[in-house]
Amino acid sequence: MKTELSFSYLKDIVFETFQNAKGGERFSLLMMSIFFFSSFFTLTFCHLSNMPINYQEFLCRICPCDVFGILAILGVLANFKANNYTIPKLIWILLLFSLITFTGLFVSKNIEATLLSIGIILYCILLALSIFNLYNSERRFILLMSTILISCGVGAFIGVYDFIANYTALPNLIPPREIYKNGVLVEVVRQDIISGFRNTGQASNYFYFLIVALIPFYFQKKIKFSTPYNLMYLFTLAITSFAIVYIFKISILLSFISSIVLFTIFMNSRRIYSYFFGLLVVVFLSGVVIAKVSPELLKYGRFKYRKRILVWFTDTKPKKKSTDTFIKRNYRAAIDGFKKYPLTGVGVGSFAKYYDVNNVHSTPLTILSNTGILGTIVYVLFLCYFFKIFIDNFRERIRENVYSDLLYFMTPFIIGTCFSWAYTFHLMKREFWILLGVILITTELLQFEKRKLNRVGHD
Predict the structure, then answer these.
(1) DSSP per residue over 207-224, as a string?
(2) 418 C-beta neighbours (distance < 10 Å), count
């Protein structure tokens, strides 16, 4: 593998990839590229056409990027046998999980919503499968990581630029979020770093899960970056980290901070210390500027801290609904749902019809309440195989191998994601499946390298 990654080398990879694409791959690669570059724009067709928002309807759950994702999947499936594509073991387990979700139809109080949710899960699984097969080579993997880097950087830049534009005379790239009551505009939300997402929760999840792949890839030791590429990479990491911190989504913030701390301890490298010290300085100095320019953002951050964290350690409650009450209510409803139908759960997408709660806000409890014992067993099996990838690599690390390094450096971040997984349902989030696709390709290419080393050893 080439040891220096530059823009000219990346251009050569792009031309080579599309020129040598076989059996319909050119179409699938083009559609997947458009999917990536539009994945930070999540306004649904209901939002774009000013239709009444009903999250049980197809048009209110699908975004423009999903059209390209579906087309890429169809292209991959149509040429699956001709191109000798494969299905990794983790994907087989997830396909079994999606099959088990159909059992929820027998008890679901909203068949349409359950079928829609099953369709979304299946779409996400096939998206990861398509990414795995389309980019499963050394040079295409570099193309994939560069695509993710540019997509993440552009998405974060738009969000931060629009945040600055909200307080200056600069024109907005995307208009700020507006709040209406009874058809009357009551607030223009200036402090959100939202980019093209519907809400800040989506934005923070997207940026965090992509940076889980991008930071470890930056610190692997095999591939070096040319100066312009390195500057772009550092800019993307800095502006994305800024967005994650100042969006103030506590579960993501806890995941990000714990990941950085674990990564710094785990690696024990002067280069990593200097990078994260620089990141800390950037975040601190930008906070000083924000305090002057946007005091409402820091006020919002303090409110989120009181509402999400401090409320667990004090009797003083915020005026709005506090997190401890919110979580206890949701978790109690999730346990009730499991007790009602322990084998199958209440059905994915049907939870709101049983309880006055749209989401449980916990991946484990969502799986338990929505899919019952059957779905939980398969999901635990998935987790075992998922974490086994990192445990095996930790035990048998090949130093200065790009794929082994990537998995090794990614391990602290995977541990850190537990905060996010404990609060959000990641199986419904595109960015999780993008990350899974990266992990599957890394594992496959690492196994190929090991087999090659074993052949050399025997010779």
Answers:
(1) HHHHHHHHHHHHH-SS-E
(2) 14
Helices and strands counted in the chain (H then E):
17, 4
Quote the number of domains for the chain: 1
What is the Cα–Cα distance from 424 to 330, expressed in whole angstroms? 12
Q: What is the DSSP string of 395-456?
A: HT--TT-HHHHHHHHHHHHHHHHHHHHHHS-GGG-HHHHHHHHHHHHHHHHHHHHHHHHHHH
Task: Pick the more confident residue, 361 or 30.
Answer: 30
Residue 55 to residues 60, 113, 416: CA-CA distances in angstroms?
Answer: 5, 8, 30
Whether 400 maps to a domain, the answer reads yes
Q: Contact 415/386 with Cβ under 8 angstroms?
A: no
DSSP 256-322: HHHHHHHHHHHH--HHHHHHHHHHHHHHHHHHHHHHHH-HHHHHHHHHHHHHHTGGGT-S---SSPP
109 φ, ψ (degrees, to nearest 5): -95, 0
Residue 19 lies in a domain: yes
DSSP state of 200: H
Q: What is the pTM of this model?
A: 0.91
DSSP label at residue 177: E
Q: Which among 54, 48, 44, 65 is positioned nearest to 113, based on CA atoms?
A: 54
The region of weakest confidence among 14-28, 286-300, 428-442 is 286-300
Cβ 143 vs Cβ 441: under 8 Å: no
Residue 160's domain comprises 4-453
Is residue 30 a part of any domain in this protein?
yes
**Could you identify the residue written with the tokens 């059996």?**
23
pLDDT of residue 216: 93
How far is it, in rounded angstroms, from Cα 91 to Cα 82?
20
Is position 110 within any domain? yes
**Distance, CA of 125 to CA of 90 (rounded, Å):** 10
- Say if strands 224-225 and 4-5 run parallel, antiparallel, or are unpaired: parallel
CA gap 225, 363 in Å, rounded: 37
